[in-house]
Design goal:
The complex is a heterodimer of chains A (about 325) and B (about 325).
Chain A lengths: L1 E3 L3 H8 L4 E7 L4 E6 L17 H4 L3 E10 L2 E6 L6 E6 L1 H14 L7 H9 E6 L25 E5 L3 E6 L2 H7 L5 E2 L3 H17 L8 H6 L6 H5 L8 H5 L6 E8 L2 E8 L20 H20 L9 H5 L6 H10 L1
Chain B lengths: L2 H14 L5 E7 L6 E6 L2 H4 L23 E5 L1 H12 L8 E5 L8 H8 L5 E5 L2 E6 L2 E6 L6 H4 L11 E2 L13 H5 L4 H14 L5 H5 L24 H14 L9 H5 L6 H16 L29
Parallel strand pairs in B: 1-3, 3-4, 4-8
Antiparallel strand pairs in B: 1-2, 5-6, 6-7
Helix pairs in contact in B: 7-9, 9-11
The chains are: A alpha+beta (about 325), B alpha/beta (about 325).
The complex binds iron/sulfur cluster (4 copies).
């Protein structure tokens, strides 16, 4: 289907009756997903958002339930995940990362009710990347700037109009019968194909073949002594990463009124693995850095047969000491 | 001889003569306008050291607790961190060989990125100009105009402590009003609103703390779980509490290098809080951290005429 740019506003206004809208909103530091009222106050960013789309499904701070303790016992009130959401302008790497988070939070066996409810309530409107950034390497990891994994709809910017690919029933329900859309013609499809080829032609390649097999036997390799050395052990790479999903659970209680919080946590922090005894199985930044690489490129593959990196480039862009995961991967595959 | 060559020569000599085990300097980054810390342990590795206006990281962050002998490349502000760390017994003077670099200012890449509004694919310095290039476009900046605010008013651009100097000392800048001086004149309400809106953006990644050479506590108060001083929720209140705690722990110790705000992925103006605190310490105690290897830090010294305006009832 096709929608002309001047009709997008009408389409979004029509959605507001049934959905809350989230879109990339510019902040001082860069765009992040936030609630919007229709077509104003936000724009599709040129590259990727600063924070990934994961925070819409796995917020950095989330109340799981509240409770009250008294002499009569404990009363628990569960937090509810409200309302249907349309998430606008998700890049294909971020959309694909959701399919990985699904394996952890909505897979066989474990179904996290909060995450699952948000996933079920949310329509992901993807936006193809006509101009991938220099730090993007999705194609090396099985993704594509025009990839559809995790998207309900994929929009392709054709200048004065968008080509809309309908990928799921949820996506179909959003656009079906809406007067703003018209059937796509051969010229539209050809224009999109040309843009896709152009985008693919711009992608760099990162050597990831064989990295998993290498990592299977590199746990005790001296390589880690080198690659971690400049790492500061902050949470920038993990917090901005769309696939990192580790969390902490804490209770905050004042005068018998308690809140159980789920908050992002990161393997890069010493506290992450500190035992109550005082022992820490990952005592230095070397073990923590190795864990981050191992989890993405080995353990996740062991568990789910997929690499937990979608090549979005955020960790490369924002690492305060310019640790470039592409260079680390190159070193591993050479090692 | 350029600064880069001079650094390489000094570093290679130190490593060749076995005077140090490692030289910590800067190497070429993988992105335009970025350099990266480089740990050189061989003469060959020393050949990869560089110096340019992107060498923003304060490498003194890698010093606390080291057991080896280390050569370190420092700018003016970084050298103050080395002095302060020696004062605080985090590294012994004999252990470090300080390679000082007179610094003409570091480029604020966010400012450049914001000005071009497109992806920068390459960048280089040409004399007093910075040239940035993207797909089919290029733009020139007066280098001076895209420096970090703190660099533009920096009074300590020459290292205060060094064993070898890579380059000629530069004239100190005349200062001019700092951002703090401009900012502290604003009405209290405006300052509060600004600080809270900055704090609301913070994701508590602690890059600021971890990039800071003076934040070396083995257990930061925010990581203490018994007792828990700080809630885990990321909201403006908790985030502000973290920063207030950090700033106060840095009273008389912050060397105004700006490493914290440069590291922050959310571009939070931490320099305002720290700058204000540094200004207070200077006005009250006449002390600037890390400037003088002979003079004890403000909080380590007691003078009978120290102002006590903070005591109740005074
Ligand atoms: S590891 Fe880095 S490049 Fe890969 S998905 Fe995470 S942030 Fe993106
Ligand atoms: S962002 Fe960089 S410095 Fe911070 S933990 Fe990640 S790799 Fe280390
Ligand atoms: S670096 Fe920035 S976002 Fe991270 S904790 Fe510090 S102020 Fe917050
Ligand atoms: S608080 Fe910031 S400016 Fe002060 S010494 Fe630490 S990193 Fe440098």
């Amino acid at each position: 289907m096709i929608i002309r740019k001047e009709r997008v506003n009408d389409f979004l206004n029509g959605l507001r009756a049934g959905y809350r809208l989230y879109a990339p909103v510019q902040t001082q530091a860069g765009p992040v997903f936030a609630p919007v009222n229709g077509a104003t106050g936000w724009s599709w960013p040129a590259g990727n958002t600063l924070k990934s789309a994961k925070e819409v499904f796995l917020p950095q701070t989330e109340t799981l339930f509240t409770y009250r303790t008294s002499l009569d016992g404990v009363q628990v009130e569960e937090a509810r995940v409200e309302g249907r959401v349309v998430l606008l302008g998700v890049r294909p790497c971020d959309a694909r990362s959701l399919t990985m988070l699904d394996k952890v939070f909505a897979g066989e066996g474990v179904r996290d009710p909060y995450y699952t409810a948000r996933r079920e309530n949310t329509v992901v409107l993807g936006l193809a990347c006509n101009e991938p950034c220099g730090t993007c390497f999705c194609t090396s990891l099985g993704g594509s700037p025009f990839g559809t994994a995790g998207c309900d709809l994929l929009w392709v910017d054709l200048g004065d109009r968008y080509l809309v690919r309908v990928l799921t029933d949820r996506g179909k329900a959003l656009v079906e019968g809406r007067p703003e859309f018209a059937p796509a013609g051969d010229a539209d499809l050809a224009a999109a194909r040309e843009l896709e080829e152009g985008a693919l032609g711009r992608m760099g390649t990162v050597p990831v073949q064989g990295v998993k097999e290498k990592l299977d036997r590199l746990f005790a390799d001296p390589l880690w002594d080198r690659v971690y050395e400049k790492c500061l052990g902050c949470g920038t790479c993990t917090y901005l990463c769309p696939t990192c999903h580790c969390f902490d659970l804490t209770d905050e209680v004042i005068d018998g009124l308690g809140v159980r919080l789920r908050t992002w946590d990161a393997c890069m922090y010493p506290l992450f693995t500190l035992h109550a005894s005082g022992h820490n199985p990952r005592p230095t930044q070397k073990e923590r850095f190795r864990q981050r690489i191992m989890h993405k490129f080995k353990y996740f593959v062991d568990n789910f047969r997929e690499t937990a990196c979608v090549g979005c480039g955020r960790c490369i862009r924002y690492c305060p000491v310019n640790i470039d995961i592409r260079a680390v991967l190159a070193e591993i595959s050479a090692g | 001889m350029g600064t880069t060559e001079k650094i390489r020569e000094i570093a290679a000599g130190l490593l060749r003569d076995g005077k140090v085990d490692v030289v910590i300097g800067y190497g070429p980054g993988t992105l335009p306008l970025r350099s990266t810390p480089l740990f050189a342990r061989t003469v060959e590795e020393a050949e990869r050291l560089i110096w340019d206006a992107t060498c923003g990281n304060n490498l003194a962050v890698y010093l606390p607790g080291r057991k080896d002998r280390v050569g370190i490349v420092v700018k003016g502000c970084d050298s103050r961190a080395v002095v302060q760390l020696i004062h605080e017994n985090q590294i012994a003077r004999e252990q470090v060989f300080v390679i000082g670099v007179p610094c003409a200012g570091i480029i604020d890449r966010r400012q450049v990125e914001a000005a071009v509004e497109r992806e920068i694919r390459a960048a280089r310095e040409e004399g007093a100009e910075l040239v940035v290039e993207g797909d089919g476009w290029s733009r020139r900046f007066n280098r001076e105009e895209v420096l970090y605010g703190a660099c533009r008013t920096c009074r300590h651009n020459n290292p205060v402590l060094y064993d070898a100097l890579a380059g000629e000392p530069l004239p100190p800048r005349d200062g001019g009003p700092t951002l703090v001086e401009i900012w502290e004149k604003k009405p209290a309400g405006e300052r509060r609103d600004f600080i809270l809106s900055e704090m609301a953006r913070c994701i508590r990644c602690y890059a600021c703390r971890n990039a800071c050479p003076m934040c070396y506590c083995t257990e930061c108060f925010v990581d203490s779980s018994t007792p828990r001083w700080l809630g885990r929720a990321t909201d403006a209140g908790e985030n502000l509490f973290f920063q207030i705690g950090r700033v106060l722990h840095l009273a008389g110790r912050c060397v105004a290098c700006g490493a914290c705000s440069r590291a922050c992925p959310m571009d939070i103006k931490l320099g305002l809080l720290l700058g204000k605190m540094n200004k207070d310490v200077l006005e009250l105690f006449g002390h600037e951290a890390g400037l003088n290897p002979e003079e004890p830090p403000a909080l380590n010294a007691f003078r009978p005429d120290d102002p006590e305006t903070f005591l109740l009832g005074k």
